[in-house]
Amino acid sequence: MDLVIKTSIAICASYFLFACLSLYQNVKTARKTGVRYTIAPVHISNKFWLGSQKLLLPLLDRLPDWMTKSWLPVSVYDRIWRHGFAPFAYHQSSTILVVSPFKLALWTSSPVAVQDMIRRRSDIVKPTEELSVLNVHGPTVTASEGEQARRYRKITTGCFSHAMFEHVWSESIAKADILVRRLVGSEEMPGRVKKELELVTFAVVSQVCFGISVSEEGEMILKEHKPHMGRISYWESFAQSAENMGITFLTPKAILKNSPFKMHKTANISNEEWAAYMEDMIEEKRRERERGKVPKTPNLLDSLYSASIDPDEPLEHEAILGNIWVFVLGGFHTSSNTLHFIFILLAIHPSIQSKLQASIDEFFKAREPSTWTHSEDFPAFLNSHVGAVIAETLRCFGVLPWIPKTTSAEAAPLLLETPEGDTVTTMIPPHTLVIADTSAVHRNPKYWPNAEKRIEGEPEPYAVSSWNPWRWLQNSGNTTTEDALRSDGELKSLSTSGWKPGSYIPFSDGARACIGKRFAQTELCAVLACVMRECSVELVTKGEGRDHWLDARQKAAVKLNLDVGITLALELKSDVPLRFSRRRHGQTINGED
Ligand code: HEM
């Protein structure tokens, strides 16, 4: 026993010494770069740190500010969005090096650095090790680099064509109809709206990318054969497997399979079930092909399946599974959470909601959604109040609050802004995690002026009062909410809005930009326009009258600042109760904020 204790102490002491030595070396390296740096006791992606944050953070939060303020805000992924631009303001620099034992991390909120980082695609690459958390079912396009990434992108992007977007459009309109019925008809239970939105976006991605219909209960519907007898539904298996992705990543496979703990069991069962549902999808495709059915416009599953039977270079089975998984993941949680944020924000800002409704009515007059077309109506929507609401929500509540990259074994040059505002090319040391802090870029006050007037009681980062869709109006430029609401300018095209390149990157940019950008914009436009054409959304209040409403608004604003964090994408972790009611013809919500 004595020997065990002594050996353990010796191992801990050696590790501590080794960590101190490494930290010392890293500080020397950081100094040489000339970038402003701060020291953190632990690297943001350290597995032990990731696994123990639930325990350690409440303790660290009790320490005085001077002990943690310089490093903690840039060391916890879940808090990146909430801190936004604050760490950069604190360090008075748009780029910061965070120095910890064994590893460096470079954080930037500078559009110049973001642009340059995206351009240098062979020097500054995806951190595949960190992203391997996504490879639950097999290798994925998202967590790969080099030749492998190029191959996966080539196979998967081909089907993201006009035909697919037409399908996304019609499918989203059809699903929005069901959504309206379910939102208006059912009781206001906590988490209900979020779940309904998740089901809709899951069903759209499932139908469009894989040709699989989903029942309103979340079950898989196949034409060619019966799916396996699942212990949980198609939808639940995905939702649970995705939610437990972190546990799957941190737990060795053998433990996950045999552990008596509930969290391990849930993760394991949902992973197994989702894998079986994916096999059902592939089997369905195999049978279709056997019957000689080759679609004119292939969907994503067609592309993956065809690649798997390519005689020259067949795509491995695991890569089909991995990529199905990552497209569902990319395709549903991002859109559903964006819609969730939008509906809460519209309920908090009735004046914006009524303008949006009036704009949709004016645009479509009496035309029914079933006659709306992707080729004509979608571009018009995207450049209307609908597009402005979506663009602004992705700015303030961008669902991926950071974009991670890394330098490889060689140091890589990167263009940075100095605190004085000059630009300088700096050599970033090898193996440095390089992070475009989207939530800070999108809140950099130099490019995105904030509202002067705040909702009473709203805490930092004031994300609700900064939300100003009309800043995207033609004549208003990047003005404050008050200015924009006063002006009634025409809408400018959102693709040529004149923001500084690199200052608005919700879908990233360049060779590794989001593959589903057009998919998401199409779906968001269709669902938002359909729902707002039919419904008004309000905050649920405790009683009648203005005071109750102001109270509900303040509570919602607090939650939208303090309870927002990341599991798979940025999401509201608590609930803001919402009520959807059918609009009478031509009647907009009472537009008083
Ligand atoms: C509001 C909706 C969405 C947002 C804000 C969004 C944002 C992003 C961002 C920022 C990236 C780059 C991530 C990185 O480099 O680490 C990305 C990548 C990706 N997105 Fe999206 N996305 C959305 C919807 C979708 C949809 C609907 C799909 C598919 C149907 C999709 C599929 C992908 C894929 C496959 C990648 C990986 C691309 C690669 O690594 O080369 N996304 N997305």
List keywords for this structure.
Cyt_P450, heme binding, 24 helices, globular, two-stranded antiparallel sheet, alpha+beta, monooxygenase activity, oxidoreductase activity, acting on paired donors, with incorporation or reduction of molecular oxygen, six-stranded mixed beta sheet, Cytochrome P450, 593 residues, binds protoporphyrin IX containing FE
Can you give a write-up of this model?
The protein is of the alpha+beta class and 593 residues long. The chain has a domain at 2-124 and 403-434. 51% of the residues lie in helices and 10% in strands. The chain has a six-stranded mixed beta sheet with strand order 1-2-3-10-7-4. The protein is globular and about 75 Å long. The protein starts with a helix and ends in an 11-residue tail after the last strand. The relative contact order is 0.14. Protoporphyrin IX containing FE binds at residues 141-142, 153, 205, 326-327, 330-331, 334-335, 338, 394, 399-400, 403-404, 506-508, 512, 514-516, 519-520. It holds the Pfam family p450.
